[in-house]
Specification:
5-stranded mixed sheet; 3 helices; Rossmann fold; alpha+beta
């Protein structure tokens, strides 16, 4: 009878230790996985180098011309349009491009580059690329 009680108590202690160790391991894994999350997914983390730029950085003619030259685009003209939110560019031997002053310059140039690469692969020659909207407009 005493042996059974001792065995039962040993089993209970063993299972309690097992459960506590499983909980501790789960917490350690949780902490390690949170530390390995990308900075944008961490809640409450302060970022020194932000990946996403604020919306307030809008495109200007100088920004566009600098980014275009960095990306090796040769523009014949780059003028501000008569309407307030547009910059019109003409790529040398290529399409006319409408840029938005309300979007960041670098994102617009990257979109332009992707569109032109895709159209080159498809062997299509656009006459107009409009980057002012959420979905770019391409006319042939």
């Amino acid at each position: 009878m005493v042996r059974r009680k001792v065995k039962r108590e040993i089993k209970q202690v063993f299972f309690r230790i097992l459960i506590v160790s499983m909980v501790v391991n789960a917490l350690v894994l949780l902490v390690l996985s949170i530390k390995n999350l990308p900075p944008l997914l961490r809640v409450g983390s302060e970022q020194k180098n932000s990946i996403i730029k604020p919306v307030s950085e809008l495109a200007t003619r100088n920004d566009l011309s600098k980014v275009l030259s960095d990306r090796n685009f040769i523009m014949e003209t780059l003028i501000e349009g008569s309407s307030s939110g547009i910059i019109i560019g003409q790529i040398k031997d290529g399409p006319k491009v409408y840029f938005s002053k309300n979007k960041e310059a670098r994102w617009q140039i990257v979109s332009l580059e992707l569109i032109l690469n895709k159209l080159t692969i498809d062997n299509k020659k656009p006459t107009l690329i409009d980057l002012r909207f959420e979905q770019p407009i391409v006319k042939f």
